[in-house]
Each structure stands twice: as C-alpha cells, then as structure tokens.
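User: Please fill in residues for this 474-position structure.
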C-alpha cells in the first residue's frame, strides 16, 4: 500500500470526513478467519434449532485497531499495539488480551460484518433480538466502523456496519418476496420500522424528529423489554427510505470538534431496526404467528480526558456526561461479570442499569434478551496508551457476560402483519398505573444518582490530570 493510501486510511478511522484503506485484510486476520467463522456459527447459529426456547449466548467481543493518524505521525507517535494470530492483541511489551477476533489497521470494513454481524441478521429474521455496539476512546474509529456518520460519496467497500445491515435486510426481503411469489401465496408478510435516538447530556432525543420538542422516557414493559416512550418509529418499505432516515438522524446528531477529533460525537446514538413478521405457525391449532425482533446499532461517544481534548465550557460539560455514562456502563459490565462468576455459588448481585440512560437503554443488550457483539475500537498510538488499555480491560471483561436470547413471538392470533399500526404507540404495563408524583419522585432519584456519577467522574478526571502533571514535572 502506498503512502497516500495509508494516509487516507488513518484519516478515515480518526475522523469521519475521510476514507478507509482499500479492502486488504491483514495476514493475521486471514489466518484465523476460518476458525473464527466456525466459532461464530457455533455461537450464533445454534439458536435456530432451539426455536421457542431460551438460549444462553455469550457476548462476543472483537477488537479493531485503527491506523496512526497524520498528526500522531507528525508528533513521532509510535505504535504500542501488535496483533498476534488474529485473536490476541499485545499492549506494550507483555500485556496480552484475547478476544473472539482482532482486526489490524489494514483489515477491511466488511471483515467484521461478514464474520460477526451477518449471522445476527440471520437471527433477526428468525425472531432474535441483536445488538452491535462500538466502544472506545474519542477518535478511535467507532463512527466509521458503525457507518453512522456521513456516508455520501463512500464506495461500497468503505461502508460501515449500519449501511451493510440495511442492505442485507432488504436483499433478504427481496428473496422472501421471490419465494412467496413462486409459492403462489402470501403467507409470509414482513414490515420493517426504524427509530433513531441519541443520549446527549443524559437527555434522550429523537433524531427522526429533530425540530420537535418532546419528552422521551425509557420504560420497561411487563415482559422486561426496554422501550422509549414517545420515540417515532417509521415504516421503511425500501432501502432508500431507510437510508434517508439514517442520513436525517446522523445530520441531526450532536457533533463538535476537539483537539483529538475534529468530528467528535458528543452523544451516544442508537439506530434501531425492528422487523415484524407474520409467519405460518408450526404449532397445532395456530395458523399464524407474529414475530417481532429488533436490532440495536449503537455508536457510543468516546471516553475523553479534558487535558488531551482541550475541552472547556459546553464541551467540558459534554465530556463529563459522556464519561459518566461510560462509567455506569463499566459498572454494569462488572456487575454482570460478578454474577457470572458467582452463579455457581448461588450468589446474586444487583445490576445498576438505572445509573444512567445509556445503561438503561442497553439493558436488553447486556445480560438480557439479545445476541450481542461489542467492537472495541482502539488507537495504536503510545500517546493513547492509558485510554487504549482501559478500553481493552473493559472489553475483555465483557466477554464473560452471558445473554439469554429467545424468539420474540407477539400474538398467536394476529390476523395480519398489516394489523401492526403504522406508528407504534408504546404501552408501559409496568408503570402505567403510577401517579404523576410517583413518576417525578422516581425520575428525581435517578437524576440524583446521575449527578453523583458525574461528580465522581469529575474527581477521577482531576486525579488523572494531577498524575499527568506530576509525570511531566518528573
């Protein structure tokens, strides 16, 4: 690869405005791709034979290393990360981390999708919820990997996870249409809907209705599923319609420049695709059944240190909120891992999903009813050593989380998929009987907890800055 190609690839993963390298996988990646593919088929494909039953599935974690950015090269940054064997990553000289897959700087965009995301789309049409979430520090390539930024002008090889999922869904829908036509019937009906929200400074915003001021509430239904009351869900009949919704929402998302990333996402975004299907039933006395599954595609805002980003004022407030949400996410991961380790001993732990709106939204995805893949995006620069190390520690812990995936049947007696309303009105069975003062008190308690997390996070930042100053003085 020439120097210009390497420069373009570095800019792409560090800032959304540029390009990813040509699709040329690393030798380490190709060496393990067969084994990894076999492993992910075993982990994600086994549920098909257990339709209608709960199935324990581990959270799958892959790591992606972006190239060095131009400004890092100018400042003589050195690479502190190496990939070994396709599933092992070494930090510095001897800090070793093992993941389900590891992708180096030259790995193509379609590598993660083909091995880990495509099977989730298969499961989506079988009625299983799915989640892909990108995690890492600011400027590590999360938005580029997910494809939740500006996709205009990108070649098919440069598209991220979300555009590929959309394309895959409609290709499958087209195949279903051909099969239905060939069969001479209309037994299999499908409706696809989209919602797009962001969590900005602990406020949930509807990116599909950016100009409308409204209050969105995260609720838990009687069946334990998490919904956003008031969020718009739009019927997407074609790929172009869904693409326009992604574009509208991405333009509306809160983005700003920092010293580390000139297109830094200032919010966590969740693009959700829900597939409703009316299927012939294999159960006696039940001619049809309605299956409804959702696919969360999550682009988390990156962790930040105020000293490195140069944030002040509003940007600093955003950083505190972002870090507080990510801290709460780390607490949830730790609690789930503790439960996994103590399960044999019969011990039970509280899972702090309510510490933040982010963890509340991801309650299904981590420890709940979902097949989940986490992509840990990291910088190879020695200047980001601490941030990269923290990302890898969180990601490695997440590998110990086990979800319970089930086929999401809605109603056995639904006469037609068309009976699903054009705009879904979420009913909150758990909280529908609450009085206004009860709701206010509960929300006030949650906000108080968020404030506590933000204060703790600010203290951690101050401590980190003091350590940096001492190191520089020394």
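Assistant: Residues filled in for all 474 positions:
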């Amino acid at each position: 690869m020439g120097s210009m190609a390497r420069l373009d690839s570095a800019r792409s993963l560090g800032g959304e405005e540029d390009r990813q390298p040509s699709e040329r996988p690393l030798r380490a990646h190709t060496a393990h791709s067969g084994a990894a593919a076999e492993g992910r088929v075993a982990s994600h494909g086994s549920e098909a034979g257990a339709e209608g039953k709960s199935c324990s599935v581990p959270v799958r974690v892959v790591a992606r290393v972006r190239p060095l950015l131009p400004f890092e090269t100018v400042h003589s940054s050195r690479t502190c990360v190496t990939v070994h064997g396709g599933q092992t990553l070494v930090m510095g000289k001897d800090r070793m981390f093992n993941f389900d897959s590891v992708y180096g700087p030259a790995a193509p965009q379609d590598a993660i999708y083909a091995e880990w995301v495509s099977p989730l789309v298969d499961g989506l049409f079988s009625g299983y919820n799915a989640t892909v979430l990108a995690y890492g520090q600011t400027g590590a390539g999360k938005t580029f990997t997910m494809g939740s930024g500006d996709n205009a002008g990108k070649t098919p090889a440069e598209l991220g996870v979300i555009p590929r999922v959309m394309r895959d869904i409609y290709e499958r829908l087209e195949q279903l249409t051909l099969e239905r036509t060939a069969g001479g019937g209309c037994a299999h009906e499908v409706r696809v809907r989209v919602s797009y929200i962001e969590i900005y400074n602990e406020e949930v915003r509807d990116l599909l209705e950016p100009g409308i001021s409204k209050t969105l509430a995260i609720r838990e239904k009687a069946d334990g599923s998490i919904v956003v009351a008031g969020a718009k869900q739009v019927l997407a009949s074609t790929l172009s319609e869904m693409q326009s919704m992604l574009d509208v929402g991405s333009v509306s998302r809160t983005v700003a420049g920092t010293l580390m990333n000139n297109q830094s996402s200032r919010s966590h975004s969740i693009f959700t695709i829900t597939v409703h299907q009316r299927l012939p039933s294999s159960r006696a006395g039940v001619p049809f059944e309605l299956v409804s599954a959702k696919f969360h595609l999550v682009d988390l805002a990156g962790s930040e240190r105020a000293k490195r980003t140069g944030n002040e004022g509003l940007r600093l407030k955003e950083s505190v909120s972002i870090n507080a949400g990510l801290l709460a996410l780390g607490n949830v991961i730790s609690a789930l891992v503790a439960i996994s380790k103590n399960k044999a001993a019969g011990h039970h732990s509280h899972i702090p999903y309510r510490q933040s709106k982010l963890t509340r939204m991801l309650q299904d995805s981590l420890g709940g009813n979902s097949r989940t893949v986490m992509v840990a995006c990291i910088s190879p620069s020695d200047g980001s050593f601490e941030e990269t190390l923290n990302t890898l520690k969180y990601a490695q812990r997440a590998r110990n989380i086990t979800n319970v995936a089930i086929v999401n049947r809605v109603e056995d007696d639904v006469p037609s998929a068309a009976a699903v309303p054009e705009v879904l009105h979420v009913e909150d069975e758990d909280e529908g009987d609450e009085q206004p003062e009860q709701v206010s008190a509960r929300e006030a308690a949650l906000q108080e907890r968020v404030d506590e997390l933000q204060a703790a996070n600010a203290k951690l930042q101050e401590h980190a800055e003091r350590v940096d100053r001492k190191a520089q003085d020394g």
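For context: The first helix runs from residue 3 to 14.
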